[in-house]
Amino acid sequence: xxxxxxxxxxxxxxxxxxxxxxxDVTSEFDGFQDAISRPQDAVDIGGETYDVEDLTYxxxxxxxNTVFCAALNYEAHAEESNIAVPDWPLMFMKLPRTxxxxxxxxxxxxxITEEIDYEAELAAVIGEPARHxxxxxxxDYVAGYTLLNDTSARDLQLGLQMGxxxxxxxxxxxxxQDTTPVGPHVAVDxxxxxxxxxxxxxxxxxxxQHDNTGMMIRSVADLVSxxxxxVRLEPGDIIATGTPEGVGAxxxxxLHPGETVEIEVEGIxxxxxxVEEAE
Length: 279
What we know:
- By secondary structure, the protein is mostly beta strands.
- It is built from six helices and 21 strands.
């Protein structure tokens, strides 16, 4: 099952995506958090159907939720970054206003940053409240999986210095408005093992990253358990699990207006967005 959010006639709706159509199940749920906590209730629900070409995709998350992101979670990416892997997961968060849906533009101001980069990530979507859960039980709290492109402004993220020390500006580098694609929807009960999936990114059709989620340093279960030890996870919260090697910053590659970035994870689908300069 693929459950997600879309906009039709100016209204945010909840839908079950079935090939080239989406079945509207909005009336059966008290918001998307409710839907993601009991997605199977939508299996036999009727509803008006729309062509996906006639709607706008919204990120499969709400403003009530939090997007947690893991940094340096693939050994090869940590090596290309020349940063030592920390003793526990290194996490940061995204603001809701940072997110955009599938086929929506990655929009940025060139007078603020000139080094926009892509990062392909598998993201777990929480299905029920989780607090202090163990890694062994953590996947029981995951409703499904989606894709996230952790688009980063490298000149802002890596451009700070204090004396002889380089500093990382996570906020400026990772949380600019309308720059982080998520979606297209959430794959529910379709992924048996999140640690055995091919993951890749492409820019205008050219492969930039290609790896397997089995190369994560900390598994999805480890990350869910870790975050739940710090805060209570709620239905609809997202945990992005880090990116493989091959990001643009270490190949002297930057994204430019007009280029299209595709993030693909086996069994989930493709998240596609075109870069544009913000007005």
